[in-house]
Write a structure and sequence with these properties.
Elements: H1 2-11, H2 16-23, H3 27-35, H4 43-55, H5 62-71, H6 78-88, E1 128-135, E2 140-147, E3 152-159, H7 164-175
Length: 182
Amino acid sequence: MSYQLIHQLQKKAIPVVQSCRVLQVSRSGYYDAQRRPAKPPSCKAGVHLKAAFADSHQNYGTRRLVSALEAQGIQIGRYKAHSLIRQAGLKPVWKRKFVNTTDSKHNLPIAENIRACQFNPGAPNVAFVSDITYIRTGWLYLAIVLDLFSRKVVGWAVAPRMPAELVCAALRMASSGPDRSL
């Protein structure tokens, strides 16, 4: 901005040396700015960048956006794309990766449902249910046992793998509680 002011003052017959001294700008910096070619406005690139970002469902980062724009015939550098993204306030939303931990298509025997959807027992410690789930903190499995009457966790176990011992440990914890017999 100060270089433009010095240029305007020079047109009004004020010497460059004096203008640079008052504005505390180096003369070599002013002359260097005069020799640099004017940058074309990046509005076109910004509009196309926003459109490509929206088309990606707000997933693409700078590398993918630059590739998408190159496919459209628009040349833009990665760092320029980064600054345009920052100026526009665009932030990519990362999709969580789905990890399938259950194999439903197996030939193993399936236990019979002896509760037959009767999930409201009349007293505590009469009916229990259990489940195993994967916790996404690396590889961690959790086995829990719930009392159907109180809906409280009465036994649990955690392990990095899913062996039969995981479920047995949760059942042991549930059976060792007060007034429980599984």
